[in-house]
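HUMAN: Forgive my ignorance: could you write out one protein's sequence and backbone structure tokens?

ASSISTANT:
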Amino acid sequence: MVDKFDTFIEYLLKMNAKEYIKYLLSIENYSFSLDEIAKETTGSSNSLKFELLRLSDKGEIVNLRKGFYLIITPRYSSAKKLPIQLYCEKLFKHLDRKYYVGLFSAAKFHGASHQQVQRDYLITEQPKFNDISKNTIDIRFFTTTNWSGKNIQQKKSDAGIFKISSPALTIVDLIHHQTKLGGINRMLATIEELTEELTDSDLTDLLSWYPNKSTLQRFGFLLEELGMKEEFQEMIYSALNAKNFFPVLLTPKSNEKPGAVDNRWKVDVNVKLENDL
């Protein structure tokens, strides 16, 4: 009898979906999963789905992906999207997957905002998620098999902490994925700005685990070409020189192999560099 009474009281204390969403906003929580809201609200599964559909039609929530919703506050109603830092941590807890904000999105947080992008970039474990493109929301997912835990920083947003690549990891990720991001010239100014934020400890951490020698060769070459941070150039070269490394193209191309090289980085410059900073 007591158990039934406790269950009844618990039911009475539950809210409807709109009330629960209001509660989430009061604690600066801007997203929720379907399982979460079903557990915390009254009504049947069908009535909840109908209520969520109605709130979605009114633009108060957005179904980001199956079973996960964003709450669009009045501040962001015209954009019809939220900044990635307000929900990425909760999204990946829901998905039970490691992640970090990366590439041009991370560069923006580090103050390298020369490249204005409307798209959000996230790096995750494999397997790859499908990109999300709906209305004004545009999220592109990249995967990595190299996950040391180093060079991943935590930053604070209104919704709590979120994970982001350090300047060093952001730079090598940009170089590594250059062919999928518009080419090396599109990111040259961003790399230069990120290098200003780079520290000895950040680069030392990266060099202790980062396995892609060809990317490090391109990184060192670009620093030398841009005339930046000789001490960082020497750190990268020392790490490379401790192993065997071989000629690589500055910009990888499936139908092209590196030819003769005339620099210590063994980088075949197969594209004309144009920095618009």
